[in-house]
Amino acid sequence: MTTLNTSTGAQYARILGTGSYRGSRVVTNEEMCTMIDSTPEWIEQRTGIRERRWATEGETPLSMSAQACRNAMEMAGVRPEQIGAIILSTVSHHHPSPSLADYLARELGCPNPAAFDISAACAGFCYGVALADSLIRAGQAGDDGLVLVVGVERLSDMININDRGTAFIFGDGAGAAVVGPSQTPGISPTVWGSKPENVETIEIENWLSGADHDTGYPFITMDGRTVFKWALAEVTGHATRTIEQAGISPEELDIFLPHQANNRITDALVRHLHLPENVTVCRDIAEMGNTSASSIPIALDRMIREGRATSGQTALLIGYGAGLTYAGQIIVIP
After folding, report:
1. What is the pLDDT of residue 228?
2. What's the pLDDT score for residue 254?
3. Which residues lie below 8 Å from residue 183, measured CB to CB, with a gap of 6+?
4. Which residue ranges form the domains of the chain, and what is each CATH number?
């Protein structure tokens, strides 16, 4: 019987640096209400959003993700040629092939990384962190064991301005993290999965539908009530399991950083998790809106750069959204 070689890598992995880029156009609730039938107060009360960031013409998913990655690599102190893999989560790359990760590798000057896109929407960054952790510990992340995990979205192109239930929610931006080897545990086991029976709850129309719209893009559709009920009923349990599998208690958490979908959902998660008052809860949605795959890394980078998250602290990340996918892990702040 033939015996094959297998590979092994570092015992542990951790996030070494973060970066982000926010769409430069600030769209306030007041401006939003010139486009839809609503009020600024109603939008903020229902979601926590006061303004959102939209990309301008030159701010593409590629340009935004490239700048986020450069910022992350600078923080981590690594060079493009050291990157062994790029994992990019997006629903905003409008070419079936090649992946946006491939274009990003060329833009950054990474000579030969493994590069691929994933589509897990709002859970995408946490999916990417799980994959990066596994690649590094399996010895499949290049000579230096370094992986770029990226979330990028330009959702303003896919907003149906006539849908007053969703038009005010979404924003544009990119977030990135360099994940690499560590001598101590820096990423907990990931709790992830989906609820396929509700796969149609949040969708982007097929591309043929875009021909019927002035924008030329397919629209995002969402049954917000169903998503809200699911998040309250099930995401709390997934977050609890994430803490348990990390082998810590809620009292040992420093930061709670959920996907920035809705402040009312975040409030409910905090209550049901019985998080202590000293845990810092991220509410970046107030200025960004919902940026799907990029919401967690954008918010994480902001917290680090503003000093609200400091090296060595623990943070619970949990993403959830389209496909009713979810993923959570606890990380150590770089």
Report:
1. 86
2. 97
3. 11, 12
4. 12-182 (3.40.47.10), 191-332 (3.40.47.10)
Residue 9 has pLDDT above 90, yes or no: yes
Cα–Cα dist 253/244, whole Å? 12
| pLDDT above 90: residue 329 | yes
Annotated active-site residue 112? The verdict is no
- Residue 91 is predicted with a pLDDT of 94
User: Is residue 259 flagged as an active site residue?
Assistant: yes
**How far apart are alpha carbons 280 and 276 in whole angstroms?**
9
Radius of gyration of the chain (CA): 19
Contact 176, 72 (CB under 8 A): yes
Q: Give the per-residue pLDDT at 114.
A: 98
pLDDT score at 214: 83
Three-state DSSP state, 251: helix
What does the block give as tokens for 169?
A: 């929610």
Q: Binning pLDDT at 50, 70 and 90, where does residue 223 land?
A: confident
CA distance 276 to 288: 26
Whether pLDDT at 165 is above 90 = no
Among the listed residues 93, 110, 259, 262, the single catalytic one is: 259
- Residue 139 has a pLDDT of 97
DSSP 58: T
* Nearest in space to 157 (alpha carbons), one of 87, 59, 63: 59
- Three-class secondary structure assignment of 117-166: EECCHHHHHHHHHHHHHHHHHCCCCCCCCEEEEEEEEEHHHHCCCCCCCC
148-160 as b/e: b if 16+ CB within 10 A:
bbbbbbbbbbbbb
The residue whose two tokens read 């619970």 is 316
Spatial distance between the Cα atoms of 276 and 255, rounded to a whole number of angstroms: 10
Angle formed at CA 72 by CA 204 and CA 65, multiple of 5 degrees = 30
Grouping H, G, I as helix, E, B as strand and the rest as coil, residue 111 is coil
220 - beta bridge partners?
204
Res 206 pLDDT > 90: no
Q: Let me know if 122 is a catalytic residue.
A: yes
Determine which one of 69, 71, 93, 122 is catalytic.
122
140: closest CA among 99, 181, 169? 181
